[in-house]
Amino acid sequence: MTQAGKRGRELLLDPACNRGTAFSEAQKQSLGLVGLVPDVTETLDRQLERVRMQLGHKHSDIDRYIYLVGLLDHNETLFYKTIMSDPARFLPIIYDPTIGEACLKFGHIFRHPRGLYLSIERRGRVREVLRNWPEKDVRFICVTNGGRILGLGDLGANGMGIPIGKLQLYTAAAGVPPKGLLPMLLDAGTNNAELLADPLYLGLRKPRPSTQELYSFVDEFVAAVQEVFPGCCIHFEDWTGVDAVHLLERYQDKVCCYNDDVQGTAGITLAGVINACRAKGTKLTDESFLFLGAGSAGVGLANLLCAALVDEGLTLAEARGRVHMFDVAGLLESSRTDLVDFQKPYAHAHAPMPRSDFARAVEELRPTVLIGVSTMGGAFNKDVVGAMSRVGDRPVILALSNPTEKAECTAEQAYAWSEGRALFAAGVQFAPVSYKGRTFLPGQANNFYIFPAVGMAIYATKAKRVTDRMFIRAARAVAEQVTDAQLTQGLLYPLQSDILETEIRTAAAVAGLVFDDGLATVERPTDMEAFIRSQVYVPRYVP
């Protein structure tokens, strides 16, 4: 990053400009830094060596998270150099699963504000608040109201850790330059009594408003973004299920926006199913699906699966007929009167079945793919996995809920209870599993394979809108990058150690679709992958 005219102490306090011990002698002289930093000049690699040593002295991942957030507040280049040097090691620290604990403790571990906090008390003045952000060319806003953080529920202002972490993944996983990324909290209160009673809670101490009042506030926010940051894409994250679906429907065809819980989760799950089909030697149209969880993530996932099935030749009615869903009240079926609008397409004619009959539903409905988005830890018990193993030779089991304690089953359970026949992935990373002389590599069905790549494609093409087709294209591109040898070990997703290369190739595929669909606002390049690579952020000190 350039120094943007800053000197001395002011320069050292700007994480985008600060180099710490890496300023040259000439820079120290010209920028008024002599005596303000140690009288050495270190390379970025030597600084990374020190960071790794200091991280090695930490005793828990939450302590490492706190240290890395502090590093980001001090030296942005060194932070991203660290994360991108070993993504398989550091992504689980800056995001899932550590981010869940960080959000639960957000007000207690808070050191320094990052991003924008937009309170519902500022209604009528939203544009004024947005203009307080110093960067004027904001390209992405990741925004939450903290309504449903991971599988942890309503965390209110503590949810700010999520957009901060998500935008770090844009850069660390796909190379989107950090300068134009803005994490935001729309603080409309919380219904979490424990937080309201916590003296260190950082949010509004009031209950959440009515839906009408909330949506009016979001309307003002979305309109203000179009005026203040006209080149910005809005990434909605971790809203309550009904709000997630309805707000996406409200704005998707009007502004550049998407919801990662709906579309990103769907994309990464589709990628896993595509590779499960490769491993089994089947086609996508041969599969049938049973969901545990029918909220925004589950229905969004089902919708994208159905769109992919339509691409493969089924009618929409035929595709939906392949999907059955359970929620806390049981099977979605046509006699139920408690369903919301977006659940009804999956409420088929069937006798009622309570949640307790889930294993029996597996026997009766005979799905080939079992998908958990329930946040019910252990819900895929031995009876359920055993039933899946009886109705199919290679049961596909995707336990997507997170953090770890919310996973519907562990990798070890899935492989043991299916006698090594399951094709398994989870929303969190599980260690390799040895079973009867074989070693299985459980994949992590994490959205970070999808949304950063889609984000890079949007960034590079300056896309006018975000479509479901982009997430289908991303899913296919991610799936294609798993080798046959990896599939034989049960791996449904690419290795995290090579995530930047994976996402550059995925972004190139998505960018091609953006141009094909007439949504780009820049000239089409002759070499799409080279075009994407030319946009990629590299953590280094610019002379």
| CATH homology superfamily of the largest domain | Malic enzyme, N-terminal domain
- Report how far apart the termini are: 9 Å
Number of domains: 3
**What fraction strand?**
5-15%
Order of strands, widest sheet: 8-7-6-9-10-11-14
CATH topology of the largest domain: Rossmann fold
Report the CATH architecture of the largest domain. 3-Layer(aba) Sandwich
**Main beta sheet: strand number and arrangement?**
7 strands, mixed
CA gyration radius, whole angstroms = 23 Å
Structural class: alpha/beta
Spatial shape: globular
Number of helices: 24
Number of strands: 14
Query: Which CATH first-tier class of the largest domain would you pick?
Result: Alpha Beta
Classify the helix fraction into a percent range.
Answer: 40-55%
Uncertain runs? none
In round numbers, the mean pLDDT is: 95
Q: Summary?
A:
With 543 residues, the chain is an alpha/beta fold. It has helices at 8-12, 25-30, 44-56, 61-74, 76-85, 87-94, 98-104, 106-109, 126-130, 161-174, 193-196, 211-228, 241-251, 260-280, 296-311, 316-321, 358-365, 382-391, 411-417, 451-461, 468-480, 484-488, 499-516, 528-533; strands at 116-119, 140-144, 181-187, 233-236, 257-259, 289-292, 323-327, 330-331, 369-372, 396-399, 423-426, 433-435, 438-440, 443-444. It is 44% helix and 10% strand.
Any key phrases for this structure?
543 residues; alpha/beta; Rossmann fold; 3 domains; 7-stranded mixed β-sheet; 5-stranded parallel β-sheet; 10% strand
Question: What does this molecule look like?
Answer:
The protein is globular. It folds into three domains: 43-239, Malic enzyme, N-terminal domain (Rossmann fold); 263-445, Rossmann fold; 449-533, Malic enzyme, N-terminal domain (Rossmann fold, 3-Layer(aba) Sandwich). The protein is 44% helix and 10% strand. With 543 residues, it is of the alpha/beta class. The strands form three sheets. The protein has a seven-stranded mixed sheet, with helices on both faces. The protein has helices spanning 8-12, 25-30, 44-56, 61-74, 76-85, 87-94, 98-104, 106-109, 126-130, 161-174, 193-196, 211-228, 241-251, 260-280, 296-311, 316-321, 358-365, 382-391, 411-417, 451-461, 468-480, 484-488, 499-516, 528-533, and strands spanning 116-119, 140-144, 181-187, 233-236, 257-259, 289-292, 323-327, 330-331, 369-372, 396-399, 423-426, 433-435, 438-440, 443-444.
